[in-house]
Amino acid sequence: MSVPLHENPFAILTAIVAPAVLTNACSVLCLGIGNRIARVVDRTRVLTDTMPKFQQGSSQYGSRVRQLGRLQRRAQFLLKALRLMYLALGGLAASALISVIGAVSAYYGNQFVFRAIAVIALAIGVFAVTALVSGCVYVVHETRLAVQNLTEEAQEALTDHSPV
């Protein structure tokens, strides 16, 4: 005994709630990425302020040059991730709204409109989730670069403060 989708309120509710929950998660990720961009900006300013203190060609100067290069790549990764997250956020919000319109058309028995809207909502939802996952991949790459900088800074600090 199967119940048609348009007669199943739980299926319709799921189609509306799933994009809404993902929209909330995507919003939190956008805030986190924005904070990460601010940290990259702050760290870049600190490094550029300290560079004149070191002689060109010294190991400390070279370390800062390498770190600045990674900071530039981190900023690019984060910018790409944020763009994708905003695309995902818009797509998920659109998918939720379109799902509501589809639910209304199903309620009024307009099966053709219901099916067409369901396909559109699904396509937008798939696009949005793909953008969300892609943005997360960029954040993972950025995190790897952040750890490389941290490792280099820690090694430099240990070398500078080791007993002679």
Short account of what is shown:
With 164 residues, this protein is mainly alpha-helical. The protein has helices at 9-50, 59-107, 111-160. The radius of gyration is 24 Å and the shape is rod-shaped.
Structure explained in plain terms:
It is built from three helices and no strands. The chain is mainly α and 164 residues long. Helix 1 runs parallel beside helix 3. The chain starts with 8 loop residues before the first helix and ends with a helix. The model has no long low-confidence stretch (mean pLDDT 88).
Keyword list:
single chain; 164 residues; mainly alpha; 3 helices; 86% helix; 0% strand
- Overall spatial form: rod-shaped
Number of helical segments with 4 or more residues: 3
Find the count of extended strands (DSSP E, 2+ residues): 0
The percent range for strand residues is: under 5%
What is the arithmetic mean of pLDDT? 88
Order of helices and strands: HHH
Class from helix and strand fractions: mainly alpha
Radius of gyration: 24 Å
Low-confidence stretches: none
Bin the helical content. over 70%
The major beta sheet can be summarized as: none
Through-space gap between termini: 81 Å
Compile the SSE list and pairings.
Blueprint: H1 9-50, H2 59-107, H3 111-160
Helix pairs in contact: 1-2, 1-3, 2-3
